[in-house]
Design a protein that fits this description.
The relative contact order is 0.17. Helix 1 packs antiparallel against helix 2. The protein has a domain of about 80 residues. It has four helices and no strands. The protein is an all-alpha fold and about 120 residues long.
Length: about 120
């Protein structure tokens, strides 16, 4: 694919990206019920329980936004792998450090450009 990483390393990054993608999609499916409208429950304590439900809903929506962002980053990394561009900084074109990709396989910028 490229001079920066061996095909075994690329395969490992691909596997890790696909596993994380599947995890995020499963989490999104599980959390779907938390993002729906908050209904007034006449059996509950009242305003406090509704406020608690609304706070839980907002937190679930924020988590969903993060998952969507992470899924997009993973998809872009998989495209870069397919195109032979994985491991190279999208900004300056220099290689991305292996340690950085070990921590975040979806990283598209080197440490210098990410600052």
């Amino acid at each position: 694919m490229d001079d920066a990483f061996s095909s075994e390393q690329i395969d490992d990054f691909t596997r890790r990206l696909l596993v994380r993608q599947a995890e995020l999609k499963a989490l999104d499916a599980q959390a779907a019920s938390w993002r729906g409208p908050v209904e007034l429950d006449q059996q509950s304590v009242g305003r406090l329980s509704r406020m608690d439900a609304m706070q839980q809903q907002e937190m679930a929506q924020a988590e969903a936004r993060r998952r969507v962002s992470d899924l997009a980053r993973i998809e872009m990394a998989l495209v870069r792998i397919a195109e032979g561009e994985y491991g190279w900084c999208a900004e300056c074109g220099e290689p991305i450090a292996h340690k950085r990709l070990e921590i975040d396989p979806a990283a598209h910028l080197c440490v210098g450009c990410a600052r």
